[in-house]
Amino acid sequence: MPTHPLCPSVKDRLLRLKGNSILEIAIYNSTRTHLPDAIKLIVSCYEDNPGMMQELLGAALIADILRINTDSSEPAGAYAD
User: How many angstroms separate the Cα of 22 from the Cα of each of 18, 26, 27, 77?
Assistant: First the structure.
């Protein structure tokens, strides 16, 4: 199963989240179990409130996640963990 080159870096950075908000916990847990679900969650939240997501994750991490999301021609469930 092909992996986007940024996936390992993004996964590592998402697993460093230490916040206590429900959103941070959900992102952390979905990253641990299935990275594509975490990416879908983050992109969905970013579409609703980009400022909050950039504050939560940082502009560089958001940019990498959006790049993974837009670069992939495969269905979201096809990202390898």
Answer: 11, 6, 9, 23
CB 53 within 8 A of CB 25: no
For the chain, residues with pLDDT lower than 50 are 1-2, 76-81
Q: What are phi and psi of 45, to 5 degrees?
A: -65, -40
Check residue 6 and give its pLDDT: 83
Per the CB < 8 A criterion, the answer to whether 68 and 10 are in contact is yes
Query: Cβ-count burial of 24 within 10 angstroms (0-12 exposed, 13-18 middle, 19+ buried)?
Result: middle
Write the single-letter amino acid at 21: S
Residues 6+ apart with CB under 8 A from 68: 4, 6, 7, 10, 39, 79
Cα–Cα distance between 43 and 69 in angstroms, integer?
8
Give the pLDDT confidence score for residue 71 in this predicted structure. 77
